[in-house]
Specification:
The chain is of the alpha+beta class. It is built from three helices and twelve strands; from the N terminus they run αααββββββββββββ. Strands 1-2-5-4-3-12 form a six-stranded antiparallel β-barrel. It has a six-stranded antiparallel β-barrel with strand order 6-7-8-11-10-9. Strand 10 and strand 11 form a beta hairpin. It starts with a helix and ends in a 15-residue tail after the last strand. 25% of the residues are buried.
């Protein structure tokens, strides 16, 4: 009995440590190390909090505040744009009030060619409807569904608009340049025009009523053959269109130069 007691005193600690090691190994195997990860997290989280200098709850509150602040700024911006459009709509002298629509689609490959609006025939939009934004003419609706419309922009390379110089009534055709500018080709060889002159749709235009603002002359090449040309800085924000106003097409009689104007 005395010998067994002494043996236990010498070997008991070793047996206990061995059992602890075996039990820990079995636990890690059965839990895939989850217990060890929990222990590690419990030890390191307080240290991480001390190092960061801010508790996680505060970080979450700050993130939520910034998110709400961003949403408020966006809503205020959209509200102001709508107010501007509504005010612009009330001043219009056209027989029919315009339809306010939002740009909801735009392809990166066709950024300067077309946009998709969130209004269609259900809202009264038809093919040929005129589209405007702050600054003036944007384009023309070239296809429409019940709830969407596709707009051919004046910045499209295929777009052609009959225009006039407001100061002198010099006329020509404005073609899109896939940018914030357009190329104006004059009917006259040496037109009465200068940099800074304002450009709007002309009475020769078949698809647009006269007097719609488009832009201003940015540069001139009066030696260009076969006709003088000018670069026109477009007023409407074609690059970042958001809200627009859409007008039903008005009936227009054929004018004297049907093959030259659009």
């Amino acid at each position: 009995m005395f010998t067994l007691k002494r043996w236990w005193q010498y070997k008991g600690l070793q047996i206990g440590l061995l059992a602890l090691v075996v039990g820990s190994a079995w636990t890690l195997r059965e839990t895939n190390g989850a217990l060890l990860r929990e222990i590690y997290q419990g030890i390191t989280i307080p240290l991480q909090m001390l190092q960061s200098g801010a508790i996680p709850e505060q970080n979450i509150k700050d993130a939520r505040f910034l998110e709400l602040q961003t949403r408020i700024v966006d809503l205020e911006s959209q509200n102001q744009k709508l107010k501007n459009l509504l005010g612009y709509r009330e001043k219009e002298a056209l027989p029919q009030k315009p339809i306010i629509a939002r740009v909801v689609g735009r392809s990166g490959d066709h950024w300067w060619q077309q946009v998709i609006l969130n209004r269609g025939t259900a809202s009264g939009i038809q093919e040929g409807s005129i589209v405007k934004a702050d600054g003036g003419l944007v384009g023309l609706v070239d296809s429409v569904t019940t709830n969407t419309s596709r707009v051919l922009l004046i910045s499209d390379l295929k777009s052609q608009v009959g225009v006039t110089i407001n100061r002198t009534s010099a006329k020509g055709i404005l073609q899109g340049d896939a940018s914030t500018e357009g190329v104006l080709e004059f009917y006259e060889k040496v037109p009465n025009v200068k940099i800074g002159d304002l450009v709007s749709t002309s009475t020769y235009s078949q698809k647009f009523p006269a007097g719609l603002a488009i832009g201003k002359i940015k540069s001139l090449d009066l030696k260009k053959l076969p006709a003088s040309i000018a670069k026109v800085e477009l007023f409407p924000p074609i690059r970042y269109l958001d809200w627009v106003t859409v007008y039903p097409q008005q009936d227009k009689q054929d004018l004297e130069t049907p093959n030259l104007t659009k």
